[in-house]
User: What shape does this take?
Amino acid sequence: DVVMTQTPPSLSVAIGQSVSISCKSSQSLVYSDGKTYLHWLLQSPGRSPKRLIYQVSNLGSGVPDRFSGTGSQKDFTLKISRVEAEDLGVYYCAQTTHFPDTFGAGTKLELK
Amino acid sequence: EVQLVESGGGLVQPGSPLKLSCAASGFTFSSNWLNWIRQAPGKGLEWVASINPDGSSTYYPDTVKGRFVVSKDNAKNTGYLQMNNLRSEDTAMYYCARTSFDYWGQGVMVTVSS
Assistant: This one.
């Protein structure tokens, strides 16, 4: 199975600060169709996960452009510019390139 | 509006069966994969089952293979997860999610305890 390694495990931030979360995979996530099926999810406290970004850098519907995703092959980054209170929660990267789908362990974003 | 609504959770004894349902609306259910993902209390996300759009192929991790069965009724726009021989380590919130995790249900809690 593809292992997804997220760092850091937690982040303490002030409102308005920018942060980055890293996700590294044990194999390249480029599929045979040339696309990279790496996604970012946010689980707000007490809620189910919500997909923020799909295929590395595409924002989901209604997701503010404070969120951005970059990366390729095995190395990916989620950046949040100007953190707002509603951004707090646990962020997961997930890959659906290789069977089975796998998730990172999560990065908990908390208020400083 | 895309919606996924799980039901059927509860408290069961070890070794018991339980069947979860996932009612879908707002999209063409028969054209989408359906996934089941679980989250043990205070833990991360774990994939537990997937089924292809027409229901002809199913997939499981080793942790549940032989005990869990995923199915879908495209006429009823509903997916199911039949869980047999439940163990304490199956205690978790269970979510259904669409293809590539773009939409998730609200989740249903399953507690396995004597």
About this structure: The first strand of chain A starts at residue 4 and ends at 7.
